[in-house]
Amino acid sequence: MAANIVISQVSKRFRVNHQRHSDLKGRIINIGRKQPREDFWALQEMSFEVADGETVGLLGHNGSGKSTLLKCVAGIMQPTTGYIKTVGRMASLLELGAGFHPELTGRENVFMNGQILGLKNRDIEKRFDEIVEFAELEQFIDQQVKHYSSGMYVRLGFAVATNVDPDVLLIDEVLAVGDEAFQRKCLNRIRQFQREGRTMMFVSHSPELVRQICDRAVVLDHGEMIDIGPPGEAIRSFRESLMRGTKARQLATGDEVDDQSDQRPATDRASTTGEVPVVDPDAAPPPAIDLANFEVRITRVRMDYPLADERDYLVPGDPLRIKVGYHAVRKIDDVVFSLNIINGDGLLVYGINTDHLLGGLAYVEGDGTLEFSFDRIPLLDGIYTVSIGIHSHDVATIYDHHSAGHTFQVTNPGVAAGLVALDASVTIDHAADRQVAG
Amino acid sequence: MATTTDAETSPSRRQGASAATTVVKPRRSVLEHIRLVISYRELLLGMVRKELKVKYKNSALGFLWSMLNPAMYLVVFYVVFQVVLANGIPYFPIFLLSGLLAWNLFSVTLGAATGSIVGNSSLVNKVYFPREILPMAAVGANLVHFFLQGIVLVLGMIVFRFDVDFAYLWLAVPALLVLLLLTSAFAIFLSCVNVYARDTQHLLELALLAWFWMTPIVYPFGFVAGSLSNQGISSTLALINPMTSIVLAFQRAFYGILFLPDSVGGGQILPDESSLWYFRNLAIVGACSLVLFVLAVRLFDRLEANFAEEL
Q1: Do B127 and A53 count as a contact with CB atoms less than 8 A apart?
Q2: Any CB–CB contact under 8 A between B29 and chain A?
Q3: Element holding A287 (H helix, E strand)
Q4: Tens digit of pLDDT for each residue in B86-112?
């Protein structure tokens, strides 16, 4: 298929001036003096093509250059080197609003936006009612846009950009705004666009959305394209790049990485590692922490991925072992270890304790290790927090509690969406066969 | 922003879809800039309309304000120069307004154009369109004001029963064209420079004030030329100011009285030259303006690369 967007050797440099002289005085005083500045390459030698009718997602951490790339494709910024060629009319939705003039009414802005997108006035007139209907702004269309709520703003922007019959649509993160009903409407519109064979490029922080919508995804890391491919694969390299980034930060701050599954930024981590008791802001009930008497302490928590080899993430169905090292100051027989697995939304995915599993521990004394073992983790994408507590049977005494800081990660190379990796297969029974059977 | 809209492009897969090819690249030639603005003429007109609308939004008198401004000038300058100072220039309001029309187009446009890109950052940051449209829209909007103020001039002529010298009236057309070219060059230049050095706006105000009094609008050119030749300097020196040639052409076209009446001691108001002399001056200024325009567009091309990040 013909390429609709060609991105060829595109680099974008930003000059970071440490002292900005955006006034004449500053410039004149500092004339001749070299301004201290740093070059920052937001995009480096990026080349890829988007085929006609394809939907490509851009994934990357904050500051990886995905918005810059989209702005360059849109023509809002121009690359320092290289070029971008786009065939067809292009509409873009960058951040909030599609570029409205606050003093003008909704109606006037629709016309101005249409003109910006290269439409003739009579074409805009033809589509006007449709746009207003889609944006659900019938009552407000003759009000100045400055009186609009942010939701109304986004709705109008989306309505204009998608109703002007663009061949190429660029979307940056706008779907995050607006209420759920409108988001659904937008998604439907996007799917309709796909069916109509329009080309789309969109930035999202939500890998799930990318998985659902895109044919391919591009992963950016510090201005470089590190992967391009089917969404599942790209999401995996995106997650890997995120992990590398966190590790690098941890190493940079001199924090040792002893817990292979700990992905939190070093700053959070410092407070929970070592012998210091956990005082974590998002720890479950704070009184419980206060009550912890540390007669049994969690000394270390280790996640083992027996099948993961070099990987530092699980794929759905992998086994997992969670080893909890403890130290008891005396022999204690009234003891329960409990474990909760919590997903990124704070939802309890699984909870169990040693009473349920063993019918109760006999005692703990001195140093030891307790292992929770899972034959398979049937979870889909996400970073899961493991919270571990040691307490008495009646939970009146809490010995120790780690509610945050221990995580493992599941990356789904497949295309299934949702929370749980269910084993599914599909068969089809045609009517002809049924007649034979009946 | 380097975007070219080519006429010949590969056919699109959807029927009736426009198949313009957009190329975003670091540099673009002056000709490409001009072609691009022309292809976006509908937007340019829309922007001009927007400028006019926003300016008089929520004001009761609306477009009348455009005419009240020169009318007020007329009254003030008439009182000061004709009544208080008694400079003796016949039909002084007509003389004043002929030059002031041109000057207002020039100075008000520059004021508006300078802030046009910074003021429309919400658009510049969000959507693509040729950025030159913004300063050019300022030129367009003030061209409309120019014609509205022209109505005041015509009204003034009727009120004062002024005889127009129709043989020279055509000079107003080339004069307006040259004025537009010169104004556009400055408008494009100032709009992009202001993104990087924000106090261009304030500097401009000072510069325009000085420039106004250096241009023979309130006083006649003949006075300056006279004192220059008294000191043995060619009066051509006064034509270094490009606005002088333009203002002179407007004054010759609309006003056309060359000498002070003997009752106030006589003297030159406008140069007693053929229309060709006026036209030659305009041609020289026009050629210079063209060079300035090309330079301004090239500078704009360089600077627009980083508009989005500077705003």
Answers
A1: no
A2: no
A3: helix A286-291
A4: 777 888 888 888 999 999 999 999 999
